[in-house]
């Protein structure tokens, strides 16, 4: 077997078939490890994630969870590996540290899901910025966006069990990240863009998953005006995208897509 990508390991299994005797086989599988995100010495959330591109994950999570608004507000970051998992230790600038302390006083405790570290229904439907960014992407690029992303999924090729997110511009797919969690994959892309000084307003996020409300929230908080996904959205995701000014494109296939919100960005966007 060729060298495996980061985040994949080889495991042994017994293959059973109705037409052949049992045999031992080796299979590449995706790693899933607990990743704790801590700020100024206190853990904010523990996510099950793929152990790759964790610096991108730290920055993306911090931005989309409202802990920081600019990468410079993380003054120090270290990645510590323990027997039980991995810890992303971050230290915040004074104002952000104070704001997070205030937020923690109102929290019942962090949870390992897409809506992290919240305990009120109002936080689950938090106010979002209204996006006015107008990414001018050729319709041909939009139609083939998920296929383009699929070609960049090296971890999925090895394991068949991870999600991917990417960032599409007029020049093509700029970057992609993979993870066992669809929210984590998007956070990694947002973190990578932030660290490289690339504005999410200049393109669209592309996802291999269905679209739920928290993915739209992350897109809006990052400042992108378009989200393209291979699967269907939920009704709450559509309502959230509509209110936030995000063009939501889903059920993406090579021949057609369904545009649910702010469709004017897609009518007349040819070069």
UniProtKB/TrEMBL annotation:
<feature type="active site" description="Cysteine persulfide intermediate">
    <location>
        <position position="113"/>
    </location>
</feature>
<comment type="function">
    <text>Required for formate dehydrogenase (FDH) activity. Acts as a sulfur carrier protein that transfers sulfur from IscS to the molybdenum cofactor prior to its insertion into FDH.</text>
</comment>
<keyword id="KW-0501">Molybdenum cofactor biosynthesis</keyword>
<dbReference type="GO" id="GO:0005737">
    <property type="term" value="C:cytoplasm"/>
</dbReference>
<dbReference type="Pfam" id="PF02634">
    <property type="entry name" value="FdhD-NarQ"/>
</dbReference>
<protein>
    <recommendedName>
        <fullName>Sulfur carrier protein FdhD</fullName>
    </recommendedName>
</protein>
<dbReference type="GO" id="GO:0006777">
    <property type="term" value="P:Mo-molybdopterin cofactor biosynthetic process"/>
</dbReference>
<comment type="similarity">
    <text>Belongs to the FdhD family.</text>
</comment>
<dbReference type="GO" id="GO:0016783">
    <property type="term" value="F:sulfurtransferase activity"/>
</dbReference>
<dbReference type="InterPro" id="IPR016193">
    <property type="entry name" value="Cytidine_deaminase-like"/>
</dbReference>
<dbReference type="InterPro" id="IPR003786">
    <property type="entry name" value="FdhD"/>
</dbReference>
<dbReference type="GO" id="GO:0097163">
    <property type="term" value="F:sulfur carrier activity"/>
</dbReference>
<keyword id="KW-0963">Cytoplasm</keyword>
């Amino acid at each position: 077997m060729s060298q495996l990508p980061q985040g994949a390991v080889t495991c042994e299994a017994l293959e059973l078939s109705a037409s052949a005797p049992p045999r031992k086989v080796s299979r590449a599988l995706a790693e899933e490890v607990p990743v704790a995100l801590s700020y100024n010495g206190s853990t904010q959330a523990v996510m099950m994630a793929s152990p790759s591109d964790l610096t991108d994950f730290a920055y993306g999570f911090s931005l989309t969870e409202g802990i920081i608004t600019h990468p410079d507000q993380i003054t120090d970051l270290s990645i510590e590996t323990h027997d039980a998992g991995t810890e992303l230790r971050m230290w915040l600038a004074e104002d952000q540290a104070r704001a997070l302390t205030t937020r923690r006083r109102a929290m019942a405790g962090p949870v390992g899901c897409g809506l992290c570290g919240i305990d009120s229904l109002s936080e689950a439907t938090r106010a979002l910025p209204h996006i006015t960014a107008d990414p001018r992407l050729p319709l041909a690029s939009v139609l083939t966006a998920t296929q383009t992303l699929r070609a960049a999924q090296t971890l999925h090729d090895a394991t068949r069990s991870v999600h991917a997110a990417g960032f599409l511009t007029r020049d093509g797919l700029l970057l992609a990240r993979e993870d066992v969690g669809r929210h984590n994959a998007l956070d990694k892309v947002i973190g990578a863009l932030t660290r490289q000084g690339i504005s999410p307003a200049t393109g669209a996020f592309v996802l291999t998953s269905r679209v739920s409300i928290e993915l739209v929230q992350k897109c809006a908080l990052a400042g992108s005006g378009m989200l393209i996904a291979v699967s269907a959205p939920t009704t709450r995701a559509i309502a959230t995208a509509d209110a936030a000014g995000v063009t939501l494109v889903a059920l993406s296939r090579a021949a057609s897509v369904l545009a649910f919100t702010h469709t004017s960005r897609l009518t007349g966007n040819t070069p």
